[in-house]
Amino acid sequence: MRLDALLSRYGYCSRREAPGWIKRHSITFKGEPCSAPTDKVQAEGILLDGEPVEFPDGLYAALYKPAGYTCSHDDGEGDVIYDLLPFQWRHRNPAVSSVGRLDKETSGLLLITDDGKFIHRMTSPRHHVAKVYEAVTEEDIPAEAVELFASGTFTLNGEDRPCVLNTHSRAGNPGTAPRPADADGGEVPPGAPHAGRRGRSRGLPLPHFHRLPASGQPEPGAGGMDAHPSGCAVILLFAMWIPISDAPIACFPHFEVAAESGDWIVVDKGAPLIVHPSNGKKEPNLLEGVEALLSYEIANGAALSLVNRLDRETSGLTLIAKNKAAARGLGRAMQRRRMHKEYLAIVQGRPEWAETTCAAPILRQGDVAESPIWVKQAVHPAGKACATVFRTERTWNTPRGPLALVRCIPETGRMHQIRVHLAHLGHPILGDKIYGPSEACYLEYIQHGWSRELEERLILPRHALHACRLEVPFDEKVFTAEAPLPEDMRQLLEAGD
Fold this sequence. Notes:
- The protein is α+β, with helices and mostly antiparallel strands.
- Among the domains are: about 5-50, Structural Genomics Hypothetical 15.5 Kd Protein In mrcA-pckA Intergenic Region, Chain A (Roll); about 60-115, 2-Layer Sandwich (Alpha-Beta Plaits), CATH 3.30.70; about 265-495, Pseudouridine synthase (2-Layer Sandwich), CATH 3.30.2350.10.
- The protein contains 12 helices and 22 strands.
- The strands form 5 sheets. Strands 11, 12, 13, 14, 15, 16, 19, 20, 21 and 22 form a 10-stranded mixed beta sheet that branches.
- It is globular and about 80 Å long.
């Protein structure tokens, strides 16, 4: 990895700031000084001012969130939790995010990480990770309410099973209620709340009542539901207890949060992840992963809607609205072409232009000629008008011929527009099975999967196209999201240094 890329990845500075940052600091790799942004280094063995890189294998931290801070990356939300983190943590790539969220006026423990898989595992409703919340009520709970909860018959609206109560005191005294049995008939361990049925926990988590005097200390001999003198505070603990399986996760959508507000979220999608369920096939998809990430918001009324979509093999930024009003507003912005999108593509050959605009009209090839690929598009005079601006960012040589990094700015949104236009210009995207060397590559891939023969012809198992920048007007403001090149494209780029 280049030194400037490493510094940017771990939040010390941006790639643009790297030359100046390197001059101001002492940097060594395996004992040898580093002085140029292009120096090849690894996180293991590098010292920055005599200190190793912080958390090279992923950041995992516990944060106490004070009241008044918002779990958001949007600076417009006021004080945000990320302002409490060290500078370099706030600028890591992938970005650091909280595992779940707390309301602005709720304080307490949050986990902070840059590991997207960890976030999804911890927040997915399928895994039922234990959480405990403590609240102080303004007045004591009436005795009849206590008896109702203790009876084990209290059922919330919309639920099909009661809230099961397990009582104990904060002093460690056992409660008066019997210890419940788990779903397999065995006793639940002491101090562990009971989840009713193993593997399920829906709706409001299980209540635990701990009565404390106003001083905050338990009275001698006071147990879970024992009588309690007036003038005390009542502590309610809501908890879930279901063991997390150690079995590997069968399917795990890969994406990172690039930007977020209360109305929308932008995620950086990996390839070959599809954005939504397709053709009834059961496979991981982006929408399912985002729903798991935002399960709390969905449980409280959020309704997710995809605003833009990417092909399976295209990586990068995807915008998702969190409510119907945001979906309408963002949809109108897209229809009126007020949404600015930029892509980066690695193409074959060395373009003779620094910048050019392709305005060739496009239609489905099957409308004018025979084609074994139904989705294939083609340039044709009878096609729909469209335009794409292309800028050559960089060119380099490889053993298999020259390559170029091209910035692509579509002014319209036709199907496969960027891929068709680049192929029309004589510079197909690397790895493109349909518009690359031959459409036979696509047919072979569909029939037999990825092979050494296809690798020889295409180099990459997916087309090297990445949605890297998104500018969208919303609520009288313009928000911007950016996503760095994915690893497969970055490796090709670095190989040309």
